[in-house]
Fold these 3 entries.
Entry 1:
Amino acid sequence: MIAYRFTQNYDDASDIRQEVFVRAWKNISHLKDESKAGSWIISITYNYCKNFYRNKKDFTPLSENYSGETKEIRGNESSMVADALALLPANQRMAIILLEYENKSYKEIAESLNTNISSVKSLIFRARGNLRNSLDKTKIHKHPEV
Amino acid sequence: MKHLSRADISSYIDGEGKLLYIKQHIQTCERCSALYKEMCEIKETIKSNDLSSDVTCPELNLSSFTHIKNEENRISKTVFAFSLFVFFLFSILLGTSNGKSISNIFNRKKVLSRNEFAEMQTFNEARNVQQYFLGD
């Protein structure tokens, strides 16, 4: 599900899920603490998602992947949020996905992204700033005058 | 009055950071309160537009995954130990079938010293014959 939220492409997400499963299977002996298995799997998924698009030569930005039909099904607002998320750098996008849709804490996000809590705090804050700018352009989000 | 940073407000709405201090500040500061509301709106907009609401996906059952892997490791260790045992047994049997039983291997030194003794006896006899003919 994380892979789908990250890529917004069902076929790519299926490929990623398959590869993540194989990698996890091969490296399960490296997992010392089973309570951190969730973060470990997310970490593998995140690293593979990054490399997947780096290696994919015919990569098209996320917003260009949507067909008109998909946009219609999703609704205008959801599509705009998806577009705004697509414009975020990979680490910010993954941090927001884990926080908002997977309900992970900053500590869990830090473990999954192999970073520390203050970096996560910064990533989330910058991601929200970027999302606000993107959504302002599309007029979804109307923030009050400061 | 010192205002809160956007990063602090952002972490506050996620329930992280110095909660009590930020809460008190937001109640008294108009500027930070407005920022807080703005960020709450962004959070709500993102959260209410779940990207995967139209997709279902089977989740990975990690406990069964680790159980299968552990079982596999246990089986491979057992197979390895068994094959090692068979190899050891086979090497012993092979040594015995070549006419070199284990007792022969350990008694090798004793057999050799007997041979040496026989050689020495032959040498002494030859010397005696030589002495007889040469008259030494």
Entry 2:
Amino acid sequence: MQSDGQPPILELRNFSHTYLEGTPRASEGVRNISFRIQPGERVGIVGATRSGKSTVVDSFVHLLRLKPGQVFYRGEDVAVPGYDRARLRREVGIVFQQPESQIIEAVVGADVAFGPTAAGLSAAETRERVEESLNTLGLPYPEYRLRYVHALSGGQRRRVAIAGVLAMHTPVLVLDEPMAGLDPRGRRELLDLLIRLQKDRDLTLVVCSASLTDASLLCDRFIVLDRGSVVMDGPAREVLRDADRLAELDITLPEPVVGAREMQKLFPDFPTDLLTEDELESELLKRLGVA
Amino acid sequence: MLELQRNVIFGQFVYTGSFVHRMDARVKIAATVVFIVASFLVDSFLGFAVLLPLLVAIVLVSRIPLGYVLRGSRLFIAFLVFILIFQVLFYPGDVPESDYFWHWGILSISREGLYTAGIIAARVILLYYVTTMLMLTTSLVDLTNGLELILGPLQRLRVPVNELVLVFVIAIKFVPVFIEEMERLARAQTARGVPFDEGGAITRARRLGRLLVPIFISGFARADTLTVAMNTRSYRGGMGRTKLRQMHASLSDWLILALVIAWTIAAWMA
């Protein structure tokens, strides 16, 4: 996890945040969160509702009233006066839980072009980015370029939102509940796409979810949040080993882990750090062979 | 970054368990109406000065921090000041030459113009303040029930009281919902590179315009969802509906109402 002297790409240091602080409607979002994410890492931030996931996501690109000394991008404090927030937002791409909220333009092509244009790319480059992003997301450019966003289905709108972020070619991609509201096929396609993108572009990937099902296929490290604090942080298998604790925290477990927990009724020492059905199967066969 | 909810508190409900919160909703509504009438009748600064201690007492007893109320009125006050500047500059009155401080074409600053603008400001602030305090201290349910009971007699004249009250209360209570929605939209768009948190007042205001269309769309969607939810729960207006909780105004409630009426009359006479 720690790499050679290079500063972490994202870092939170004792990050605490209270919404509407100092008013009677104040509510605490997160308390004392610290972690580092290195370039190229694939991290899942997992927790039930109100665990503080969205607060953490918003902090990455300075969407909150941040105090200095808490949030760092490539070793630089993002909350000091004069910090180039516009650049930060061009480098850390976020796909929010409700994709509708981040769609700015009424027409698909124009919306995907918004980021590249704002970043100062030429018309030709922008067009190329838009075409590439829409095609990658399975929305063929010639067909979807001029469609109205509000006339698309929920799943397609999410793809437009993702395309808008991909077109920015950000080194960091953050997705908040990317699978919510997608059907099984849509999920599988998005999952494949993210795995491919992460490899091709050497992305730093952060996936937030209340479910480990998808995160376990995408990420190799989990940070588990509970009521605004980090309760577990480590390699995926290590975190899955403590499946009972995860279940207590109201986190949806991946299917192999659910199966493994059932198996523990027969074999009390059955491991839960399984990432795929194949692993579950071979573990089970091993036990049956012995028994 | 953008925390609009700090600057616009209209329509919010903040429970502190204070005496004001526990007062009978009908009495609070009646007192608000008395203040609204007073805002039309009182026409001297002395009159408003007489009302001031009573108004301050309300916020103190309610235990809602004064700073919160003031901060939450900032945008409203800014808007008011903007309008009053025009009111002063274009004051049309027949003013003797000696009363002008400055004069250019149809633009002028006169003693009378300033005075009238001041009185209007006091009236509008009073209106805004009492309705905001009513909503800060009265829950949605109490507000609805209170209004229905007060307007109940009109039902005999075939006025659809229940429906009217419902529409009124929903309209007001949706204001904070939309403010929150705007905040969410502004955050998401900022993340994509529309910098809502940078630039001067006018640039910021122009960017807010971008949020209008999505806000309207989500408004219609919300209204639609609410309608469906009410229909599936067999909402059919006030006909034959009874209340689980009856309202009881205590002696202290009536005394307070009497005090408010007496005080406003004193302010009117002043």
Entry 3:
Amino acid sequence: MLGVNPIPRSVCPATASSRLRFLSPFLLCVAAAAIWLPSRAAAQETPYFVAYSHHLEEPGNLEIETYSIYGTQTGGGDFIAPWMELEYGVTAWWTTEFYIDSQHTFGDGSVFTGTRWENRFRPLMREHWINPVLYVEFENITDADKTLKEVVGTDTQFDAADPNSEANRSHAHEIETKLILSSDYKGWNFSENFIGEKNLGHEPWEFGYALGVSRPLRLEATPRPCNFCRENMILGAEMYGGLGTVKAFSLSGTSHYVAPIAAWQLPNGVTFSISPGFGLNENSHRFLLRWGMAYEIGGFGRKVRSLLR
Amino acid sequence: MRRLLILTALLFASLAAVAATGHDRDLDSRGIFQVIAKAPAKSRDQKNPYEGQTNAVAAGEKLFRQHCAECHGEDALGRGRAANLRASGVQNATPGELAWFLRNGNLVHGMPPWAGIPEQRRWQIIAYVKSLH
């Protein structure tokens, strides 16, 4: 999956069976995780794929996450872009996260597309109606990256139509900043993200947005341990898109998406999530499907420290 | 190969950072209790809607094991920087004070806010914690 050599077109036709091949390791992970993983800390994170809420990783906890996105493509092969995240709560007000991105384009090949390092900070020490979080990320990715972790500037689906061999030659070093605003009210979470991204080369600032809303299906917990119960299910939706550049701030000429989300948070710290996404204009990929699994290891920092002593 | 070396270096740097955050703060339980006592008056007087309900205590115990036991211990006696929840400073606090503290946390001293779990579940946790006296 992370190989750098493109697979010849004839070896990898875009058939339904080849797409299912990518799903089978995920399904195996699902079964293994649900059965074998021991009880660990359960997270309180919201289920969004693109938007962020103000809830950070608990201090000392490590969350290992693996996600994928399948997208349809006009003028090129459909794609699956898997990525992995390692998220660590450094303090109660600072979370750091490291990403490894890759993608496979049907009829083209598989490529490793780069890494990202993000940090989120809570400037206010108490809960408020609206809670701000400051986000800074450094990206070292190629133009072949198709994880669509955000949409900024005049990003359109046609940017992803270039062959991997060309797109993966162009490296981008970018700084991405976000102002995350988030509120909790009667079990609902409402999150609004304003994104500013700057290519450290000669590109202008690009802007984007992401909005999210979510709620558990049941607010109270039941007395008995349970896996398949409403309290462990979260439903939500997110909407995201570009806002043009500093020279042309606009909702047009870019892409926009809306995506319902469902997440299943198991008491042992495993979370599964899935989100079909729909493009809202002709610049957008017509259909996206995101899915993933996260596993939270409570007290990871303490365990590492005890090993190093 | 160079990419692999960079990734390996990043991994070690991350482990070193984790180790460096080891002795975050020398937090004693009294520090936490003082913060709890700072709850605003309108929060302090709030009643636990689940008070006296055995089902809520059982649900709270389940939630405690999921969210709190990692730091405060399965026995709630606290460990490391995390407070002993059976101590008088917690047990003498009103349910409203504990609800305020649970929602806001104490970010400076390492206690995360638990506003991300629904209010009903926070009250269930408080019902369990108060049952430990």
